[in-house]
Amino acid sequence: MKFIAIVGTNATKSYNRKLLQFMRSHFANEAQIEVAEIKDIPLFCEDYAQTPKSVLDLAAKIQAADGVIFGTPEYDHDIPAALKSVIEWLSWKVHPLTKKPVMIVGASLGNLGTVQAQESLRRILDSPGLDHLSYLVFNFYLVELKQLLMIKAI
Fold this sequence. Notes:
Blueprint: E1 2-7, H1 15-26, E2 32-36, H2 53-64, E3 67-71, H3 81-89, E4 101-107, H4 115-125, E5 133-134, E6 140-142, H5 145-151
Parallel strand pairs: 1-2, 1-3, 3-4, 4-5, 4-6
C-alpha cells in the first residue's frame, strides 16, 4: 500500500514531521509512506487565475496514493492556518481527496496532545467538495512528547 503523509505545518521544526518520518521507517515493510511538506504552498486565494503548481503536485501525489495521513500540530486548540489553507486548495478546483481513506495523527508536548486539532480537522474534512473516507474508530494522540524525547529520540 502507498500512503502520502502530509506534514500539517509550514514550521521548520515539527514533532509531527518527526512522527510521520517515524511511521515511514517503522512501517516500511508494510507500506510505502511518502512524507510531503506544505511549506511551499501559498495561502488559499480565489484570485489565482490557475491553481499553483505546488498544489497540483500535492494533488497528484494524493491521487496516486491509496490513502492520506495528516500529521497535525495544535495551535490555539485548532489546526495551523497553513494546513487549513492547503485543504481549501484541495477542495476548490482539484478534488484529490474524493473517496480517499484519511488518517489523522498528531504529536504534542502537552498532556492533551492534539485532541482538539484532530477533531477540528475531522470536521473540516467533512466539508462539501472533499468527499474523503474517514473512519471514526480510533484516534491517535501522542501526548507528553517531552518525556518521550528525554527517554528516546524519535
